[in-house]
Amino acid sequence: MPVYCITGTNRGIGLEFVRQLAQSAEKYTILALTRSLSSDLGELKAAASTTTHILECDTSNLQSIHTFTKGATKILGNQKIDFLLNSAAVNAASWQNSLTLGPDDLIDQIKTNVLGPAKMVEFLLGTDLLSPNVRILNMTSGLASLQISSGMSPRKSTGYSISKAALNMLSVHQADDLKGKLPGCVVIVMDPGWVKTRMGGSGATVEPHETVKSMLGILLKLKEDDNGSFFHYTGEKIPW
Ligand SMILES: NC(=O)c1ccc[n+]([C@@H]2O[C@H](COP(=O)([O-])OP(=O)(O)OC[C@H]3O[C@@H](n4cnc5c(N)ncnc54)[C@H](OP(=O)(O)O)[C@@H]3O)[C@@H](O)[C@H]2O)c1
Q1: The CA-based dihedral angle spanning residues 133, 139, 39, 94, taken in that order and rounded to the nearest 10 degrees
Q2: In which domain of life is the source organism classified (predicted)?
Q3: Could you tell me the residue range of the domain that residue 45 belongs to?
């Protein structure tokens, strides 16, 4: 049974990934990660299948990621993770621009949006939990594209955009660095579009079910040549 591991699943796009995978005619083992088991997990529990494991993982906290990987080893036994979806992220202080960046806000975003996906991969690799053909999706944003951002007005979410541009660079490095260790792996970044979640807000144009359905389809069709690519959820490539 293929194994999906998804971060930030108590709401938003992460929750929708769990919902669609759990309802699929195919059976999957799903590691549904959430920042805290003490938060409201009603929607996640309702979406889960009998092969869904809800596990705590605060992706801004290295000890939490480490503890999760140790627990995952026990749950998975000989199974390996086939799909790692790093979806958890924060967009703190979206009103700040390049002239008003709050140091703590920027650091929080770097911790969750960049260091989190870096350490997820590092620790899962270190515990031998990644399949040799693993597909890793680091969820980015169109705001991470230097080319798109250079023509954007008005500007906002500067700290978030910086963190997602850094995530893009991390992903290009992961794509190369993992190749020597997991020969069939493919690492991509994906922009899910402007999605109706708490982060996207009610003015957003894309429904969570629409983007998640498309992204799951793209993941299944990835080829080794796609390693290190930047995709839009529609399947088009995005300029860096
Ligand atoms: N929505 C959009 O329009 C849009 C556009 C471009 C890119 N994206 C990207 O898509 C991904 C999902 O976004 P979304 O729209 O679903 O956002 P969302 O509705 O705000 O949900 C964010 C999820 O990430 C979790 N999270 C945040 N910090 C975490 C941490 N330290 N540890 C573990 N989980 C954490 C949240 O958990 P808590 O409930 O515990 O905070 C929540 O489950 C993100 O990477 C985002 O940057 C979204």
Answers
A1: 160
A2: Eukaryota
A3: 3-232
